[in-house]
Amino acid sequence: MSGLESRKVLVSGAAGFLGSHMCDKLLVEGAEVIALDNFITGHARNLAHLEGKPGFLLIEHDITKPIDVGPVDFVINMASPASPKDYLEFPIETLDVGSLGTRNMLEIAAKYDAKFLTTSTSECYGDPQVHPQVETYWGNVNPVGPRSCYDESKRFSEAITMAYHRSRGVKTSIARIFNTYGPRMKLNDGRVVPAFVDQALRGIPITLFGDGSQTRSFCYVSDLIDGLYRLLLSTEVYPVNVGNPNEITIREFAEVITRLTNTAGTVVYQPLPEDDPKQRKPDITKARTLLGWEPKVDLHTGLLETIQYFQALANATS
Ligand code: UDP
Predict the structure, then answer these.
(1) Atom of ligand 1 nearest to the CA of 123
(2) Could you list the mean pLDDT of each consecutive 10-residue stretch along the chain, which spans 318 residues?
(3) Does the bond joining 132 to the residue before it have cis omega, within 30 degrees of 0?
């Protein structure tokens, strides 16, 4: 894959978990990065190591308001609250960023003839009735349930991306991201990885929602970013799943965390949140064939890195 020497890339949501790792990758590839974030759910800490680095500029900006940063070669649209806890707290902001925010980013791509990549989600499949999920599946989304602010925001972002491609000729790609984990996740964002690791490290019971038989498939962050980067450089217009097809029940996942943290592993059962998908696993045939991509990091290796990160964070703040 070619590098990005002297190419300018605009990244929205750059202070988020994935956005910040994307900035790192782009800089390694030689790109100049303009990073946007309004810090609603992202954190400046995630970009602190890039402050003052040549080729990196951070602008505090809410992308629901128009912005013009001058000519760019690529636009990567990653801004959105992404954990259920965050988007339930900010449902209107979530809908705004997926709609108005995506549109503003598309306008920049159209103006400067930049390649546009938007980061969509496996939530587009809702509570899927097709398993594993292929990109051609249209999904089973509740349009008025509590998760609808996120699901419909992302589905709208896909629709407007296709509209700009079809009617304005913008070069676009759409990634559907499945559950991803790794360093820089927020400890308190409610997602299962930080929640279970935090509980295990603090020696308190693990909160298992429902009976724990629901499944997810967890992708380590370096694999995910590699997949997104390859998609950025590709010409594929239709959605591509990026995730790890290794499926596990949440009950088994709690056991893995207990083993890796060497803790007692007591569990407390709590009600399953409304519309919590019962199963989720990407079919990544398309990414494999089109991008030559597949995940490399196994769950144990990735989780050990993640646990170390959370441990260091806890030590630094205690
Ligand atoms: N979950 C859980 N306990 C928690 C947090 C999450 O059992 O403390 C479950 C949640 O119900 C879901 C899965 O773990 O089935 C993944 O949840 P997460 O919030 O990480 O993301 P989602 O895949 O639902 O968007």
Answers:
(1) 25
(2) 86 98 98 98 97 97 98 98 96 98 98 98 98 98 98 98 98 98 94 97 96 98 98 98 98 97 93 96 98 98 97 84
(3) yes
